[in-house]
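User: Before I run my own analysis I want an independent prediction to cross-check against. Here's the chain; please return only the C-alpha cells and, at the end, one sentence I can use as a sanity check.
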Amino acid sequence: MAQWRVKWLNEHTNIVIHREASKVINKDIGQLFFWLDKTKYEKFIHPLTVDEINKYKDNNTVEAMNIKLDSYNILKTTAPFDEPIKTISEKIDKTPNDIEDSKLLSEVIHDRVDILITEDKKIHYKARLAGISNRVYNIESFLEKTFAENPSLVDYNVLSVKQQLLGKVKLADSFFDSFREDYPGFDKWFNGKSNEISYTCYYGDEIGAFLYIKKEDETENYSNISPSFQPKKRLKIGTLKVTLNGFKVGERLLKIVYDNALKQKVDEIYVTIFDKRPEQIRLIGLLESFGFKYHGVKSSSAGEEKVYIRDFKPKFDKENPRFTYPYFSKKTNIWFVSIFPEYHTELFPDSILKTESLIDFIENEPHRNAISKVYVSHSKERNIKRGDTIVFYRTGGLYKGVVTTIGIVEGVINPVKNFSHLVELCKTKSILTEAELKKFWEQYGNYKPFVVNFLYAYSFPKRPNLAKLIELGIIAGPNQMPRGFSKITENDLIKSLKASESNESIVVD
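Assistant: C-alpha cells:
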C-alpha cells in the first residue's frame, strides 16, 4: 500500500492534544487517527504546530506533549512562501495566524506533503483559490475518501439506522454526555419524551448519530427567541448530533427532516444549536449548505444558542437547488433515465426512510442515503443543466420495470479529463467500484462517459410500472424504452406524479 504523507495544521494542534490526552475529548479524532494508521498514512507535523504547543502556559502539558510528539514526523524543512499562495495571502490574510495557515498550504502546493486535513473554513477557501482543494480535506471528507478507496477494510454491516421510541434509546450512552453538559435537566426532558419517535444511528453497539424532531403550530410560544418568530407551522429539529464521519449520516438524517417537513406541511424548519463543539460546527456547515440561515439567538438557562431557519414554502432556486431542496420545477428540462436493478437498489434504497415506516426498522449501509449523488452516463444527449429534473426508471420489463425516484441536477462534468478524474468525481458519491468505473471508461473507446451530480429528492409512494407508463402515453411501447437521458414533457411528469400518488406540492412552477 502506498505511503501517503499527511501534514497537521496550526489549528490541528488540538487534534494532537485530543489524541494524546488521557481523556478522549472528541471521538472523531480517535476515529481519524485509527484510519490514518490502518491505511498506512505517514503523519507529519509542521514546525508551526510544535511552536503552538510550546506556547501553552501549562509547563507540564508542554513537556508531556513534546515527549509524545516524538512518535510523529516533524517536517525538517519548510516550503518556500511564494506563488500562488503568496498573492492569495496578501489579499485575504488579516492576522499573523492567517499568514501561518497560508504557509501550511504552501507545503501542499510544493508537494512536500500529499494531503492536508483541517476543519478551518478559511483554509479551505484559500485552497480552492490556489487550485489544490482536491488535496485539502476536513475530517469527514477525508474519511469518505478513505472508505471509498478501501472498501474491503470497512465493516459496513455494523452500521444501522433505527426509528425508535425515545424510551428504547440507551440514554446512559456516553453519546449523550455533551447534551447533559450543555442542557441542565436533559435526562428529565428526554425521559418525558419516551413515547415519541427518534432516529438513531448505531456503529456496532454504540450510538453515533441521533435525531429528534417536533412539529409546532401557530400557537407555540417563542418568547425566548430574538428576533421573535411570526406565527407559522414549523418543524423543530429538537435534538441532532452526528459523531460518525465518512458515511453521509448527517445527510441521511437531514433527508428524514425534509421528508417529515413535507408530510407535516410546515412553512419553516428551524434548529437551535451551540457552536462550541466540533460536531456542532460541522452540523451548522451542513445546514447552511442546504439553505438554513442564521436568524438570531435563543436564551435559556443553558445559555445563548444560535437559531437557524429554513423557509420551507414551495419554491425553486435553479442556480442553487440545495437551498430549495427537495422542491423541483416542472418548467425545467425533464429527463427520463433508466437504471439497472443492481445499481438502483444501492443508489436509491427502498422507502425505508419514510415517516410512515414501522417502528424499529433497521437498515444497513446508511451511506446509501446521501442526498448528493452522481450518475455516470454515455448518453448521446448531454445538454443537461443545473436545476433540471430527472425521473429514474428501474428496469425490469413490462410489470417489474417501475419509475421510482426524482433527482435534481446540481451540475454536469463533461468532458471528464481522464480516468483518474472520473474516479475522483465518483469515489465518495457513487456505488460503482473502481473496476466498474474502469469498464465504463473503456466501454466505447474514445467516446467517454460524463458525470451528473444530482440531489436525491423524492421517492414515489407508489411505483407505476412500464405497462402503466405505456397506458399513460409516457412511453410509446415495450420496445420503445429511451436510452440514456431522454426528454419527457411537463405533462408526462405530472401524470407520473398522479399515478404514483405523490405529494404534488413537491413540484413547483
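Sanity check: The CA atoms of residues 215 and 235 lie 5 Å apart.
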